[in-house]
């Protein structure tokens, strides 16, 4: 069982552990890397340019980020009204989807009647992307793991 950045347990299946390990091995992260460098590493790994777009569109009231993949490129859209740290986490979450080979970011068809964390981690793809967002942040942070405060 992995730990999410806020110390809540994130149960990854054996298959998801293998998927995320393979995804992380496709990019080489180091302390001090910028978000742009991470995007570049993921772009190289998936062999497509990635374009980022901040939005304040009302349709993103309850969605913090999403991606659209075309045969030629990928667009990641994230909510521009969120604090910078949360925008970075949302970006890394979407990059996690791309690294894992997810073709879309599936959403529940009906609202879940549980806590926000449960909604976020409702399926393997979301757990994998969330785990990779945490790992990316951990690996590029200049701070030691014990002194990190993210969220």
Can you characterise this structure?
Helices cover 41% and strands 14% of the residues. With 151 residues, it is of the alpha+beta class. The longest helix is centred in the last third of the chain and has 17 residues, at 124-140. The model is unreliable at 108-114 (pLDDT under 50).
Instruction: Give me the number of helical elements.
Output: 5
Strand order of the largest sheet: 3-5-4
Helix vs. strand class: alpha+beta
| Low confidence ranges | 108-114
Q: How many E-type strands?
A: 5
Gyration radius, to the nearest Å? 15 Å
CA distance, first residue to last residue: 20 Å
Biggest sheet overview: 3 strands, mixed
Mean pLDDT: 82
Strand-residue proportion? 5-15%
Shape: globular
Amount of helix: 40-55%
Question: SSE layout and pairings?
Answer:
Elements: E1 2-3, E2 9-10, H1 14-25, H2 35-46, E3 50-55, E4 65-69, E5 74-79, H3 84-99, H4 116-120, H5 124-140
Parallel strand pairs: 3-5
Antiparallel strand pairs: 1-2, 4-5
Give a quick precis of the structure.
The protein is of the alpha+beta class.
